């Protein structure tokens, strides 16, 4: 009998060039990439090329060249990996949770939406972000607790910066306009707190994106959402997503609401989850899980572009058997 597990679906920071090169021939990988490519800007910036070609551009270069391609590749990599883990390798998670825009990938991983639906939402979000005036800004990670970060924000006089994500006991992300971020970085340096600028296109998890969220919600009201085949958990509410309306709202949460990932991990542990499986190629959420719930077991099967054999080996604690099913299932379209 295997330990109860949760599948972690990362968002920002999950794009790794050629991340799926070793598993690109799997049906669920090919199917996901084909669906997402229908919304790609084309040329060298298809999700298929970015995620299967080791010479694809790194995150900083890609987001400058094509923010939409960056968004779609981030989403496609997580969804393709999560679907492969579930339907090819046979992992049966007891819950799925996303982080930031990874909430959208989590909906697809749990089959509440089709992979193509998430791509359509991101394409619409891209058009709205381009067409909605927003001050220059972004995201900064601090090696500090949420409480310590709030104190730094107070010392920096805020300038519209607020906590965007409470990730782990000693990792918090803030979001806001550029002048405020610069002020917070200066105060943090003076206090000996390490800061890191995150690769992103705007100030996610901030009220300044309320106009974008409002317009995007109109699209989501017309979007087909289905009961998930695996229970979904919200990293914004740190609670289960119970209704279809809850699920719809979760697709917008990354725009204006802060992430409570640390609290979500602790709540999942209290519910009986003992195994945390990171679906991303960078093992970012796995690291946060290790820091927050050190007694739990954390797996990152697709970390470092693992071969099929290595993925199977890493998944054994979750599968309860030596090899995946001989006849993988396809899941919902």
Description:
- The chain has 333 residues and is of the alpha/beta class.
- It has 2 domains: 241 residues, Malonyl-Coenzyme A Acyl Carrier Protein, domain 2, CATH 3.40.366; 61 residues, Malonyl-CoA ACP transacylase, ACP-binding (Alpha-Beta Plaits), CATH 3.30.70.
- It contains 14 helices and 10 strands.
- The longest helix is centred in the N-terminal third of the chain and has 22 residues.
- The relative contact order is 0.18.
- It comes from Streptomyces paromomycinus (Streptomyces rimosus subsp. paromomycinus).
- GO terms for molecular function: [acyl-carrier-protein] S-malonyltransferase activity.
- This is [acyl-carrier-protein] S-malonyltransferase.
Search tags:
Alpha-Beta Plaits, six-stranded mixed β-sheet, 14 helices, Ac_transferase_dom_sf, 10 strands, Acyl_Trfase/lysoPLipase, alpha/beta, 333 residues, [acyl-carrier-protein] S-malonyltransferase, transferase, 2 domains, Malonyl-Coenzyme A Acyl Carrier Protein, domain 2, acyltransferase, single chain
């Amino acid at each position: 009998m295997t330990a109860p597990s949760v599948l972690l679906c990362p968002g920002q920071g999950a794009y790794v060039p050629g991340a799926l090169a070793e598993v690109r021939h799997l049906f669920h990988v090919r199917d996901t990439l084909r669906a997402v490519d229908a919304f790609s800007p084309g040329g060298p910036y298809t999700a298929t090329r970015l995620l299967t070609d080791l010479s694809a551009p790194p995150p900083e270069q890609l987001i400058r060249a094509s923010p939409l391609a960056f968004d779609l590749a981030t989403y496609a990599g997580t969804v393709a990996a999560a679907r492969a883990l579930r339907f090819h390798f046979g992992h049966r998670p007891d819950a799925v949770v996303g982080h930031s825009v990874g909430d959208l990938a989590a909906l697809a991983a749990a089959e509440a939406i089709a992979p193509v639906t998430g791509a359509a939402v991101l394409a619409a979000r891209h058009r709205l972000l381009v067409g909605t005036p927003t001050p220059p800004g972004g995201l900064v990670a601090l090696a500090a607790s949420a409480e310590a970060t709030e104190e730094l924000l107070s010392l920096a006089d805020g300038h519209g910066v607020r906590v965007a994500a409470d990730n782990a006991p000693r990792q918090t992300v803030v979001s806001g306009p550029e002048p405020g971020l610069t002020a917070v970085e200066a105060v943090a340096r003076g206090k000996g707190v390490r800061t890191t600028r995150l690769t992103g296109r705007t100030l996610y998890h901030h009220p300044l994106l309320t106009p974008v969220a409002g317009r995007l919600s109109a699209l989501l009201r017309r979007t087909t959402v289905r009961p998930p085949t695996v229970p979904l958990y919200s990293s914004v509410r740190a609670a289960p997503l119970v209704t279809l309306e809850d699920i719809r709202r979760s697709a917008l949460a990354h725009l204006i609401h802060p992430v409570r990932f640390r609290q979500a991990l602790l709540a999942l542990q209290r519910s009986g989850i003992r195994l945390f499986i990171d679906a991303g190629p960078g093992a970012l959420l796995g690291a946060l899980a290790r820091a927050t719930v050190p007694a739990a077991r954390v797996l990152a099967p697709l970390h470092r572009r693992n071969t099929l054999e290595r993925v199977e080996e890493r998944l054994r604690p979750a599968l309860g058997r030596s090899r995946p099913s001989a006849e993988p299932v396809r899941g919902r379209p």
